[in-house]
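step 4 of 6: structure.
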Amino acid sequence: GAVVSQHPSWVICKSGTSVKIECRSLDFQATTMFWYRQFPKQSLMLMATSNEGSKATYEQGVEKDKFLINHASLTLSTLTVTSAHPEDSSFYICSAARQGNTEAFFGQGTRLTVV
Amino acid sequence: GENVGLHLPTLSVQEGDNSIINCAYSNSASDYFIWYKQESGKGPQFIIDIRSNMDKRQGQRVTVLLNKTVKHLSLQIAATQPGDSAVYFCAETWNSGNTPLVFGKGTRLSVIA
């Protein structure tokens, strides 16, 4: 299967600071990447869909100015949590898909803790 | 699917028994379904998938059944092993394009040795 690498795997930051999470497709070109958030003991909730070279599409209730998504190349998407607060503490997971292919490959996730 | 509550349903099975995990999906237009396994602190791991033109698909020790009439999926794990202990999610999508996966609530499988 294809490999998606997410970095960092965990991060602790102070309230009010910004954190950037990277999602890379290592052996294929990902025209679309998805960002999910998962709170403890809950399912994965889609935050946004990002297509290479265009603006991300955010799900209802997700603040686009707070969660900045950039998909500047076919192998890299980044999620920046701006002015992080403790309630943003969560497990963030990206997935990537090839053009026209429904199978999505997941990164290993990033545990964000805001203190 | 709707994600409510803080407590995942739990299924406890004896090692060696068969496990059946169920999932109700929400969108009648969904045409592709996947089961994922998620271990603590890790991303989802693909187990098996099925398209809407099928009602059963088998893999190694796993079988997925799809009932489109009642929008129901099940995952059967044969001869459950301690390493199968994890949270299992079903996911659905549609259009065979780059549409996102919608995840179900999840079920925690606990294997008793």
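step 5 of 6: annotate
 - Chain A has a mean pLDDT of 92.
 - Residues 29 and 63 of chain A are 27 Å apart (CA to CA).
step 6 of 6: archive
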